[in-house]
Amino acid sequence: MAWPYVADDTSDPLLAADAEVWQPFTDAVRELVDACVQSDVDADDVRAAQADVEAALARLGKARLSTTLGQSGTVGSRRRAWGNPVIGVRNPIAPPLHVDSDPAGRAWSDFHLGPAYEGPPGLVHGGVVSLIIDQVLGHAVGAGRQPAMTGTLTIRYERGTPLGDLRVEAWVERREGVKIHAGAHVLGPDGPTAVAEAVFIVPRRFRDQLSDGIGAADQGSTQG
Ligand SMILES: CCCCCCCC/C=C\CCCCCCCC(=O)SCCNC(=O)CCNC(=O)[C@H](O)C(C)(C)COP(=O)(O)OP(=O)(O)OC[C@H]1O[C@@H](n2cnc3c(N)ncnc32)[C@H](O)[C@@H]1OP(=O)(O)O
């Protein structure tokens, strides 16, 4: 089927050069977020840092994209995921995760969550756990190159997920027509902390284009 995004004709070297500029900047902003929740300096330093940040904002605000990275056809599909809140090269709220996947419909990532993601004391916010599970499930489903969206996501929080080093794994369990059933879990130092079941749906608008059935290797991926 035809994938609905405009092909990105930016050359690989140009794309890499752009990523080389934005990635270190984004990493610095992520450290700024961490400092925002963890720094213990006095009020004068906070006010001085605020002025520094406002100066940076004035500089960055000189030009602005006219659409989001995800929507932009001119920016192109290869930069589409740069704004993603879990994996985005240009999104400092992304931990970020590097997600691996295989065509059999498995996806996994080892990642780290610091204090900016805290919910209960010392533990990851449940919504953040859900965010990460949803994303990595998307990669597992997308590894089969299917245009599918999360229809239902059920999470059982077995125990608190400690801040720190974690792993997430997701897998496609079975396909029933337009429905793709998948599972996932987050692993902490003492085993699974959250276990998920999900149903992904090939949206109606893509079904007419599915001439060769669900799961064929030449279909588009939901992944950025
Ligand atoms: C293909 C598009 C790709 C988009 C572009 C992606 C770019 C990606 C970029 C970067 C990487 C992203 C990485 C992934 C991120 C994680 C994934 C997300 O977070 S996705 C966002 C959250 N999800 C939504 O916003 C869905 C909102 N809901 C809908 O759009 C619709 O309700 C939808 C598509 C889920 C279903 O709508 P219908 O009209 O296509 O479905 P009907 O024809 O009524 O039903 C078909 C079958 O599915 C079942 N069904 C329908 N809705 C269901 C649901 N919500 N849960 C379970 N089953 C459902 C029905 O019972 C029916 O089953 P029976 O054939 O009768 O057996």
UniProtKB/TrEMBL annotation:
GO molecular function, one term: hydrolase activity
Compartments where found: Cell projection, Ruffle membrane; Cytoplasm; Membrane
Regions crossing the membrane: none
GO cellular component: a single term: cytoplasm
InterPro entries: HotDog_dom_sf, THEM4/THEM5_acyl-CoA_thioest, Thioestr_dom
CDD domains per the UniProt record, alphabetical: PaaI_thioesterase (cd03443)
Enzyme class: hydrolase
Keywords: Apoptosis, Cell membrane, Cell projection, Cytoplasm, Fatty acid metabolism, Hydrolase, Lipid metabolism, Membrane, Transit peptide
SUPFAM superfamilies associated with the record: Thioesterase/thiol ester dehydrase-isomerase
Topology class, membrane: Peripheral membrane protein
Catalytic activity reported: hexadecanoyl-CoA + H2O = hexadecanoate + CoA + H(+); tetradecanoyl-CoA + H2O = tetradecanoate + CoA + H(+); decanoyl-CoA + H2O = decanoate + CoA + H(+); (5Z,8Z,11Z,14Z)-eicosatetraenoyl-CoA + H2O = (5Z,8Z,11Z,14Z)-eicosatetraenoate + CoA + H(+)
Domain Thioesterase: 122-185
GO biological process, one term: fatty acid metabolic process
UniProt EC number: 3.1.2.2
PANTHER family the UniProt entry points to: ACYL-COENZYME A THIOESTERASE THEM4 (PTHR12418:SF19)
UniProt similarity note: Belongs to the THEM4/THEM5 thioesterase family.
Name listed for the protein in its UniProt record: Acyl-coenzyme A thioesterase THEM4
Record organism: Nocardioides faecalis
